[in-house]
Backbone:
């Protein structure tokens, strides 16, 4: 690799990791080290006081639990709804497929504030404010177009010949779907599920509209920020980032630039 | 085509119709409905007279513009570095004086745009990387044989062939930037209203769903204009490759 290339990559790595480092550092720094006009980049003192206060106050665990449950359910429901749709889409004539994918693309572009307002009004009437159910239903609106898009690409990449060969070998339609097609689609399903999980985990706007008391993790972080407590904000944000890093790390072998590029849309 | 070929699509389509299209339609209806019944443009007149609204429109466009410029520049640099293709060089200046990053409006705009760029540059990079991978390496070999400089290769091969990926990144991230919400709220509180936070404050703080819906409608129109321009430039097939 040429020198400019590797220095550019180093710069990018710094740009990407820098804020995460600062967040972690603030969460374990003595206040005097941070609340100054010229804070230092390297840590000097080390304290677990902020973490102790965060966990002992007991305000952070319910949001953590609510967000974990919501994101898990959103990922599962997204796969259940989007996978059959994507399977059909991949087998449709291309004109139809393009039309429907374009529709999904446009749905994904709609402003969330315009969705959130009527949904909040209706959910208030249905008693779904503060509920995990309501939040899952709302988050799915953002997640489904993306999941369907990723999975359509996935199923398109599985050649029909493979399914035909399985049928010739005596597999029933269901056996072919279950043992061949879905097995081959595991990487795409993983990416779609992970994206759905991440979308829900960090979602802020819909959660704001649909919450009266029982906060999600992003709202709890915002609450600490609003109070002006940088240390609790940093600790809670670190707590929120940890599962993301863990999950993407575990699933990294399934992630490829090409499949993610579709998702980035 | 048989009906069973569409059965899997049905739940998804019904869901998105019920929870996305219908809500947006009822927001549009709210934005023009008079309290006593009938249609009115009063809510639009009201927000037009509200100086915070004008500020929100300007801020939304400005944050999107600055953020997009940063994201495309950094995303392109990153994608080029990863794939090892010719590119120029750039330098970084260091900041030595303490700065209140959200103190003035200009700085607040810049800070929010940089934070947004930090968040989404990797996505822009992925879109551009996929675009770069689609450019055949032979083109560069031929250009080198003809003695083309690295800059010339970039300008004559990389940029034109990357245009679809660049337009894609531009529109998708542009629309996301129009809808920006959490970052301005978290970084500036009420200091930097954008269209989404304006709609949010109108509804949840002032309890006025009509003006909130009207500003959502303006946001929707801005998004549709952006998407329409893109579809016209790229053609629908380009979007869905």
Residues:
């Amino acid at each position: 690799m040429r020198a400019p290339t590797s220095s550019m990559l180093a710069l990018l790595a710094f740009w990407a990791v820098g804020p995460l480092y600062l967040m972690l550092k603030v969460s374990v720094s003595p206040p005097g080290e941070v609340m100054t006009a010229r804070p230092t980049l390297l840590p000097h003192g080390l304290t677990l006081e902020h973490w102790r206060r965060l966990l002992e106050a007991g305000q952070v665990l319910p949001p953590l639990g609510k967000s974990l449950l919501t994101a898990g359910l959103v990922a599962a429901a997204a796969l259940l709804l989007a996978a059959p749709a994507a399977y059909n889409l991949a087998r449709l004539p291309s004109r139809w497929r393009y039309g429907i994918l374009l529709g999904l693309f446009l749905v994904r572009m709609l402003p969330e504030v315009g969705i959130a307002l009527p949904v909040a009004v209706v959910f208030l009437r249905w008693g779904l404010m503060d509920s995990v159910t309501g939040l899952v239903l709302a988050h799915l609106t953002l997640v489904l177009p993306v999941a369907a898009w990723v999975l359509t690409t996935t199923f398109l990449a599985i050649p029909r010949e493979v399914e035909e060969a399985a049928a010739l070998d005596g597999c029933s339609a269901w056996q072919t779907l279950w043992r061949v097609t879905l097995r081959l689609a595991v990487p795409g399903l993983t990416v779609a599920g992970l994206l759905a999980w991440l979308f829900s985990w960090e979602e802020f706007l819909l959660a704001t509209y649909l919450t009266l008391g029982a906060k999600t993790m992003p709202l709890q972080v915002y609450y600490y920020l609003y109070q002006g407590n940088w240390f609790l904000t940093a600790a809670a944000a670190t707590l929120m980032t940890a599962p993301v890093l863990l999950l993407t790390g575990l699933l990294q072998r399934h992630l490829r630039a090409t499949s993610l590029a579709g998702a980035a849309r | 085509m048989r009906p069973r070929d569409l059965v899997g699509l049905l739940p998804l389509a019904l869901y998105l119709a019920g929870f996305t299209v219908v809500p947006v339609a009822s927001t549009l209806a709210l934005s023009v409905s008079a309290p006593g019944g009938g249609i009115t443009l009063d809510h639009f007149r009201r927000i037009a007279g509200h100086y915070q609204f004008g500020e929100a429109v300007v801020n939304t466009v400005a944050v999107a513009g600055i953020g997009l410029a940063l994201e495309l520049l950094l995303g392109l640099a990153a994608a080029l570095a990863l794939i090892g293709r010719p590119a120029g060089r750039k330098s970084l200046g260091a900041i030595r004086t303490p700065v209140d990053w959200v103190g003035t409006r200009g700085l607040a705009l810049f800070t929010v745009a940089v934070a947004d760029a930090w968040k989404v540059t990797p996505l822009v990079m992925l879109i551009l990387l996929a675009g770069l991978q689609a450019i055949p390496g032979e083109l560069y070999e031929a250009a080198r044989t003809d003695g083309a400089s690295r800059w010339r290769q970039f300008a004559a091969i990389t940029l034109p062939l990357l245009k679809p990926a660049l337009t894609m990144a531009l529109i998708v991230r542009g629309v996301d930037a129009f809808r920006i919400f959490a970052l301005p709220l978290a970084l500036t509180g009420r200091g930097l209203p954008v269209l989404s936070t304006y709609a949010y404050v109108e509804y949840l703080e002032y309890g006025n769903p009509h003006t909130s819906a009207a500003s959502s409608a303006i946001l929707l129109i801005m998004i549709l204009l952006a998407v329409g321009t893109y579809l016209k430039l790229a053609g629908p097939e380009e979007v869905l490759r």
Remarks:
- Chain B has ten helices and no strands.
- Residues 88-96 of chain B have pLDDT under 50 and may be disordered.
